[in-house]
Amino acid sequence: MANRSGIILAGGQSKRMGKDKGFILWNGKAFAQHVIDVLRPLTDEIIIVSDNPAYDFFQTKRVQDIIKNSGPLAGLHAGLTHASSQNCLVLSCDIPLISAKVLEVLLAYENSEHDAVQVQSRGKTMPLIALYRKHCSEKCQELLQKKQKRLQALASELNMKTVPLEKGLEQYTANINSPQELEKLCS
């Protein structure tokens, strides 16, 4: 069994951006590649959760949602279900600035009693920059069967720790969700 898995959620519909965010280029690399590059030295396996076979380009394990059309909770469920380790770093594909420094904050809690640990950046909790235990997949499935799709619903059901980031680390957690945010990133 692997020591630690990295899970990248890349299944969103990208309505605001208008195209698949994982393939947007920044500094000559796709967003998803930036996330992979940060996860690779910290994990024994990387799993991309996406129905899009184009993600096979990144030569990592790719899995699809087990419960279809159920949002990020379904992506998390699929990733945790397929992970081969108990500790899983979970990231969205739209955070190209992500830094190992942020992930090390999460990994400091790897041996804690929490089901999951998420960061808080600029006053917002970030359940897709988090460390989850594999057993959280069971709670995901339970919520999905009740037609719940929101990650906040999961957070309220878990023993979840929230760790506020130091101001100097907050810049690394920017989600790039719209053409305006991409323009700002590139300027």
Write the SSE topology.
Blueprint: E1 4-9, E2 25-26, E3 29-30, H1 31-39, E4 45-49, E5 61-63, H2 71-82, E6 87-92, H3 100-107, E7 116-121, E8 124-133, H4 136-145, H5 151-157, E9 160-164, H6 167-170, H7 179-186
Parallel strand pairs: 1-4, 1-6, 4-5, 7-9
Antiparallel strand pairs: 2-3, 6-8, 7-8
**Radius of gyration of CA atoms, rounded to a whole number:** 15 Å
What would CATH call the class?
Alpha Beta
Decide which structural class fits the backbone. Answer: alpha/beta
Number of DSSP strand runs = 9
State the end-to-end CA separation. 43 Å
Report on the structure:
With 187 residues, the protein is α/β, with parallel strands linked by helices. The protein has a single domain (4-186), classed as Spore Coat Polysaccharide Biosynthesis Protein SpsA, Chain A (Alpha-Beta Complex), CATH 3.90.550.10. Helix content is 31%, strand content 24%. The protein is built from 7 helices and 9 strands; from the N terminus they run E-E-E-H-E-E-H-E-H-E-E-H-H-E-H-H. The protein has helices spanning 31-39, 71-82, 100-107, 136-145, 151-157, 167-170, 179-186; strands at 4-9, 25-26, 29-30, 45-49, 61-63, 87-92, 116-121, 124-133, 160-164. It has a 7-stranded mixed sheet, sandwiched between helices. Strand 7 (116-121) and strand 8 form a beta hairpin. Helix 2 packs antiparallel against helix 4 (136-145). It is globular. The N and C termini lie far apart (43 Å). The mean pLDDT is 94.
